[in-house]
Design a protein that fits this description.
single chain; about 60% helix
């Protein structure tokens, strides 16, 4: 659905910033970008030496390089300055509103690209669909469902009152269009700060007249689920997607669910903390989320150090406290911790150094005495403040993870496919050099039979393996779930027998999460191993078929197997459940039961209902995604080889003159040397 035509189309109004500073921190990408350029050069060579089918394959692989967009999800505490940090990272101060209303649950994805933006929709805002909205307003979201199961009427009544107020405001703001907007989207060719604030920040005063209300701040904020903004920043050497998420400690846990999805879709997670709050046992929801992500994919950014009185003294203490808290609550081990200030970054980027307040300036000087000894040399005050802001260090950390993570995976994948294309060009060159007699040992019909047999064997082998692994995974998950419930219930009865009904009992779900995470990790590792085995076996069969097709007289026809896909982290394990909450409603639930058996059976059903969706999400959503990725990679590999091998047979049917023209045949030795050079270059990347 297009945006309401009555709303004026905004013009992008970006403040001027110091682009030279913004580019600082991306140097780690230079070797990787050179590798990307080398890959493009190889693909261009393949395109030039091959026929049209090969050229199409080469261009498809170049598109994969061009569309590489590492994604970073920013999560953290409310009021930690996360949005201000995001604005500094993308070089657009005040782009996203920092003071969002507690109701706002929008994930804003900033697609930053070094190239000019050619797409016609640079801003897209999507609304909650009817089902999502009904879940919130009818059930109170996750917390409402939980309180309802627990029979916590007092808590439920508070939730209903808050929801009623939100619903009344939303309906009065949007009028008769309210229901029609659910599940829809607004898109714009350009955007500015004012437009964004209509969707991701909530205002207080709204006019009754629809024309006036159309331009009011926060008009669509209550029902907006996500925002995607695309813009150019020449200082970025590579496209990036920076996702700004709501704080996780909201009343209805809607943000928690949204943040879980955002983390699952990204490869790097930046946790933004406030230097005043650091990290404590109060942030267990945050710790639970990141504990399911690989430590290397988590970066902790402690913001607002400009507000500390003695950063040089306090920062080591904060670092130690964060490390201790993560260790005590099974958080990511050895996660990198960066200290900085979005406020300092903003002042450096905009050149407003003289407007810094006195306390912030004092903190800056105090921190500079210690920190600049270990930082790169700087030549002017703006560079010094920018470096101390921590943003360049954050960029360096992000670049390291891009290079070793999605960057490496993308280049290896492209290089392996390019090597197979090169083998196809080598085969075509061999055919073109043949004089007299059949050029290939198999006709197209026989080849199709052979290809069909290989494809059927490989698919059957992978599907059977995945079926067996999934079945085993389900059994282990169900066993772990039941074992936890049985142990917890036995512990409850033991507690009642020892302390009676007056002492409220608590039981940590950490053990269940550990068991489920372990089961998922084993399932993922076995799936990767099984997929790799099938891929390599299939590659061997294709190599044999290629040799059979050409009579085994051509070197360099070995087919390269693809790499198995990465297994996404089980972030949903971190969602809050009843056992994580210690509120008045627990006592209410406790008091409503009479007798030990009622306690035990009631607790069993409550926790089973709470944990069952998590177990099912891993068994269904996560497991299906793993399966789909494995089968998808195989399908792509099979299609690639079918295209290459059928292309070889089609090549053999062409008259010599047409074939020579299609391949641009020149000096045979020069062509062979060029292909060897391309293959050596690709081998260095694909290994």
């Amino acid at each position: 659905m297009n945006a309401d035509p009555r709303i004026a189309q905004p013009q992008e109004d970006r403040p001027t910033v110091n682009g030279r500073l913004l580019s600082t921190g991306f140097a780690q990408l230079t070797p990787f970008l050179e590798k990307m350029d080398g890959l493009r050069a190889s693909l261009e060579g393949i395109e030039e030496l091959g026929d049209e089918t090969t050229g199409k394959g080469a261009r498809r692989l170049m598109a994969q390089l061009d569309t590489l967009e590492p994604s970073v999800t920013m999560i953290g505490q409310v009021k930690a300055g996360k949005t201000s940090l995001v604005n500094a990272m993308v070089g657009w101060p005040e782009l996203l509103p920092a003071d969002v209303n507690p109701w706002t649950s929008v994930v804003t994805s900033l697609h930053v690209t070094p190239a000019p933006v050619t797409k016609t929709e640079t801003a897209v805002f999507r609304f909650f669909d009817q089902e999502e909205w009904d879940r919130l307003v009818e059930n109170g979201g996750r917390i409402g469902e939980l309180a309802s199961r627990a029979g916590a009427e007092e808590e439920l009544e508070k939730i209903r009152e808050q929801i009623d107020r939100m619903r009344e405001k939303s309906q009065s703001r949007l009028g008769r269009r309210f229901e029609l907007l659910l599940g829809q989207a607004h898109d714009y060719a350009t955007f500015d700060k004012d437009l964004i604030e209509r969707y991701v920040c909530l205002g207080d005063d709204f006019e009754d007249e629809e024309d006036e209300a159309a331009d009011t701040q926060g008009r669509f904020a209550d029902i907006t689920r996500s925002a995607d903004l695309t813009f150019q920043r020449e200082e970025y050497p590579l496209p990036f997607c920076i996702r700004d998420t709501p704080g996780v400690n909201d009343t209805f846990m809607m943000r928690e669910q949204i943040t879980i999805r955002a983390i699952r879709e990204s490869r790097i997670c930046v946790v933004v903390l406030s230097a005043h709050q650091a990290l404590s046992s109060m942030d267990l929801a945050l710790i639970r989320l990141i504990s399911n992500v690989k430590s290397r994919e988590v970066i902790i950014f402690v913001n607002r150090v400009d507000e500390l009185s003695e950063p040089a003294k306090q920062i080591p203490e904060i670092r130690a406290s964060i490390t201790d808290t993560l260790e005590a609550h099974d958080g990511p081990k050895d996660a990198q911790i960066i200290f900085g200030s979005a406020y300092w970054a903003d002042r450096a980027l905009t050149g407003r150094l003289n407007s810094m307040d006195e306390a912030s300036t004092a903190a800056l000087l105090n921190w500079a005495e210690t920190e600049l000894e270990t930082r790169p040399e700087v030549s002017d005050p703006a560079e010094m403040i920018w470096e101390l802001s921590g943003v360049p260090q954050l960029f360096r950390a992000l670049c390291e993870r891009v290079v070793e993570g999605i960057g490496a995976e993308t280049t290896v994948k492209v290089a392996r496919s390019a090597a197979n294309l090169t083998a196809g060009v080598r085969a075509a060159s061999h055919i073109a050099a043949q004089e007299g007699g059949p050029r290939v040992a198999l006709g197209r019909e026989d080849l199709m039979i052979e290809l069909g047999a290989i494809e059927a064997r490989s698919r059957d082998a992978l599907e059977k393996s995945l079926d067996d692994l999934t079945k085993s995974f389900h059994v282990r998950m169900d066993r772990s779930h039941k074992s936890f419930l049985d142990r917890a219930t036995a512990n409850l009865i033991s507690h009642l027998e020892k302390y009676g009904e007056q002492s409220v009992w608590q039981y940590s779900p950490a053990g269940l999460r550990l068991l489920l995470r372990s089961a998922y990790q084993v399932f993922g590792a076995k799936t990767q191993a099984s997929s790799r085995e099938v891929y390599e076996t299939t590659a061997g069969e294709f190599t044999t078929l290629s040799e059979k097709l050409l009579g085994g007289s051509v070197d360099g026809l070995a087919v390269t197997a693809p790499e198995p896909d990465r297994i996404a982290p089980p972030v949903s394990l971190g969602q809050t459940i009843a056992l994580d909450l210690q509120g008045k409603w627990w006592k209410t639930w406790w008091q409503r039961r009479r007798g030990y058996n009622a306690f035990a059976s009631g607790y069993y059903e409550l926790i089973r209902s709470e944990t069952h969706p998590i177990v099912e999400d891993l068994k269904v959503s996560h497991a299906n995604a793993v399966r789909a990725a494995a089968l998808g990679t195989l399908a792509g590999f099979l299609a690639e080889q079918r295209e290459i091998l059928t292309g070889i047979v089609d090549t053999a049917d062409q008259p010599a003159e047409e074939l020579a023209q299609a391949l641009g045949i020149g000096d045979a030795d020069e062509r062979r040397e060029t292909l060897d050079c391309i293959m050596r270059s690709l081998s260095g990347v694909a290994a």
